[in-house]
Amino acid sequence: MTDVSRLAQVRARLELPLARRASGLLEGRHRSILKGHGQDFDDLHLYAPGEDVGDIDWKSSARAGIPVVRRFVRESNVNLVLVVDTGRNMGATAASGEPKADVVSFCCALVAYLARDRGDRVALVAADAERVVQLPPRASTRDLEVLLRTVEGQLGVDAPASDLNRALDRALSAFRRRSLMVVVTDEARPGPEHEPLLRRLRVRHEVMVVAVADLSPVAGGLGPAGAGHGAAADPTGRPSRRATQVADVDGTLDLPPFLRGRADVAAGAAQAARARRESVVALLRSLETEAVSVTGTHDVVPRFVELLGRAKRARR
């Protein structure tokens, strides 16, 4: 691992138009959950009994013929909290063939980079079945570099099993003030077992999920899909297409040669993966939580920009 600035690595890969767009979309996150008197106009809505008559926009009411209230939002400094799943499933192989740990690290570095340029603070909750690491909100370049290296140090195939609930519970208990929570996990999560904590977290905070997609189990004979799996790799870290065995973070899965490359097996695996993703999407939709899936470091930036855009439109 090269000893270079993680934030500098993001800057080198971030195109200026995308950086500006992401920063602009992130600007819209910094709003109080409470409506009321403030500096920024939000919208007009029909007057409801019990509202302050002082908020009535009389000119708009005269044009509409009914009482209309002018609504504002109050500005609020909001912390960004990275909630990272550091279970060994995150040390496997991403859909792009890269180590999932590299993709997770780049996701976190992108959030830290955008926040630093805005002068915002970033906190960390990283957890698995045996470990919980929490870092307080900080904004300096040095502190953010420490945060990113902390995340990197927690990821690997020798890490304990995943326990996303442990991370969500710590985030819920540690951050009382409304924050933007960016949950980084794999495409098999969150599941039904995470719904209660996610629902509570969503009430208090704004939550977005970034899921790292797994490598297909039979695409080119590279390795099993799903949480906690990864492909056999050569010394450069790239998956080996000549491997007769598939590396699994929980052991070794023997994949018979006659199964590798078969179209029907690949189609079945793809269908199972789609069904799993759809169940996750349905859960998050029921919680009104925006999410995005990334396949590798190459699509982290555009997908994150897409996520911010969808989350901003959902607020309107």
Describe the structure.
A 6-stranded mixed sheet has the order 6-5-4-7-8-11, sandwiched between helices. A 3-stranded antiparallel sheet has the order 1-3-2. The protein is an alpha/beta fold and 316 residues long. The chain has helices spanning 6-13, 16-27, 58-64, 100-118, 141-154, 164-174, 195-204, 263-286, 300-315, and strands spanning 31-36, 40-46, 68-75, 79-85, 122-127, 132-138, 179-186, 206-212, 246-248, 251-253, 290-294. It is globular, with a radius of gyration of 22 Å. The longest helix has 24 residues, at 263-286. Helix 2 packs across helix 4 (100-118). The two termini are 43 Å apart.
What order do the helices and strands follow? HHEEHEEHEEHHEHEEEHEH
Classification by helices and strands:
alpha/beta
| Major sheet details | 6 strands, mixed
Query: Roughly what is the average pLDDT, rounded to an integer?
Result: 78
Cα distance, first to last residue? 43 Å
- The shape, in one word, is globular
SS strand fraction: 15-25%
Main sheet strand line-up:
6-5-4-7-8-11
Low-confidence regions: 28-41, 220-247
The level of helicity is 25-40%
Individual helix count: 9
Radius of gyration: 22 Å
Q: What's the total count of β strands?
A: 11
Give a topology summary.
Layout: H1 6-13, H2 16-27, E1 31-36, E2 40-46, H3 58-64, E3 68-75, E4 79-85, H4 100-118, E5 122-127, E6 132-138, H5 141-154, H6 164-174, E7 179-186, H7 195-204, E8 206-212, E9 246-248, E10 251-253, H8 263-286, E11 290-294, H9 300-315
Parallel strand pairs: 4-5, 4-7, 7-8, 8-11
Antiparallel strand pairs: 1-3, 2-3, 5-6, 9-10
Helix pairs in contact: 1-4, 2-4, 2-9, 4-5, 6-7
